[in-house]
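hi! just following up on the protien thing from before. the input was this:
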Amino acid sequence: EQFAYVASLQPCQPKASELKGGKFPTRMQGKWLRSFHEDHYYKKIPTGEFVKRNWLSYSPSQDKVYCIVCKQFGKEDSKSYQLARFGSNDWNHISLKLKSHESNSSHLESEIRRAMF
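and the predicted 3d structure came back as:
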């Protein structure tokens, strides 16, 4: 019953305006200051439309993104479990990481398990 409740929760996707200081934290990555941006909550599909990534959750306290679907329904030995367990704050490469993650077979299997739950 507790798992069912947790599985039904929506991802944490705050807007910058809802955070302390009204923006996402910045950090030096290489020579540049980088930060998360709420645009990453969406992906652009071939029709040009934007679709919400309902699996992506941002943690303000950790300043990282996580895959809540793989965290709840993934297998610990799968490649996609990295984003579920440790998250990512590599803002320089985050677009590629998210695109790679959401097309990964382990993530897709987790999405199927969630849909069947």
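The chain has a mean pLDDT of 91.
The two ends are 12 Å apart (CA to CA).
cheers
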